């Protein structure tokens, strides 16, 4: 499961996650790594586009959490890839694995998987594709994280 922050303008208009410019970066990286997104669930922490495309505030995240939780309960992902800090910190707070994050920024946590034993899923933080779109140096690391993810998935699925 890939979990992004909130819909952008294109996503909000078309009702699909990660389809605009950000989605192009995301899908291109997945395709290059040969990750079949048809076998993955792609969603957002917040269902509605925040005004001015700003970062969702805690109230907005909280209002959408029941929907996210229900989705997680239905699909039971064994690997969750939070795309960006909002998605990562939301999951950490809701599922109690803040200790893995310390006070590190997403840029320091990206590409470093960890297993949440009591929840029986892996978390593989990645920067948000919009950040990768803005920074060429980050884009290469973003693509490399997809390659690593593809290589690691078989072993992770055995454990969970």
SSE blueprint and pairings:
Layout: E1 2-4, H1 9-14, H2 21-32, E2 42-44, H3 58-75, E3 79-82, H4 85-95, H5 106-109, E4 114-116, E5 121-123, H6 129-134, H7 136-159
Parallel strand pairs: 1-2, 1-3, 3-5
Antiparallel strand pairs: 4-5
Helix pairs in contact: 2-7
Describe the fold and architecture.
- This protein has a five-stranded mixed β-sheet with strand order 2-1-3-5-4.
- It is of the alpha/beta class and 160 residues long.
- The protein is built from seven helices and five strands, in the order βααβαβααββαα.
- The chain has one domain (2-159): Uracil-DNA glycosylase-like domain (Uracil-DNA Glycosylase, subunit E, 3-Layer(aba) Sandwich).
- The model has no long low-confidence stretch (mean pLDDT 92).
- It has helices spanning 9-14, 21-32, 58-75, 85-95, 106-109, 129-134, 136-159; strands spanning 2-4, 42-44, 79-82, 114-116, 121-123.
- It is 51% helix and 10% strand.
Short description:
By secondary structure, the chain is of the alpha/beta class. 51% of the residues lie in helices and 10% in strands.
For the structure shown, list the relevant keywords.
160 residues; alpha/beta; Uracil-DNA Glycosylase, subunit E; 5-stranded mixed β-sheet; 10% strand; globular
Q: What is the gyration radius calculated from CA atoms?
A: 15 Å
The percent of residues in helical segments reads: 40-55%
CATH superfamily: Uracil-DNA glycosylase-like domain
- State the helix count: 7
The CATH architecture name reads 3-Layer(aba) Sandwich
Strand residues, percent? 5-15%
């Amino acid at each position: 499961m890939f979990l992004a922050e909130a819909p952008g303008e294109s996503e909000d208009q078309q009702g699909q996650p990660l389809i605009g410019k950000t989605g192009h970066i995301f899908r291109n990286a997945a395709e290059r790594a040969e990750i079949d997104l048809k076998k993955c669930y792609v969603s957002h922490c917040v269902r509605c586009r925040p005004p001015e495309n700003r970062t969702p505030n805690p109230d907005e995240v909280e209002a959408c959490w029941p929907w996210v939780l229900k989705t997680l309960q239905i699909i039971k992902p064994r690997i969750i890839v939070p795309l960006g800090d909002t998605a990562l910190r939301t999951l950490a707070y809701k599922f109690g694995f803040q200790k893995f994050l310390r006070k590190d920024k997403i840029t320091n946590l990206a590409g470093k998987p960890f297993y949440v034993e009591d929840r029986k899923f892996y978390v593989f933080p990645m920067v948000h594709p919009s950040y990768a779109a803005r920074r060429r140096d980050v884009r290469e690391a973003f693509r490399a994280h997809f390659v690593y993810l593809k290589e690691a998935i078989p072993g992770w699925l055995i454990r969970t």
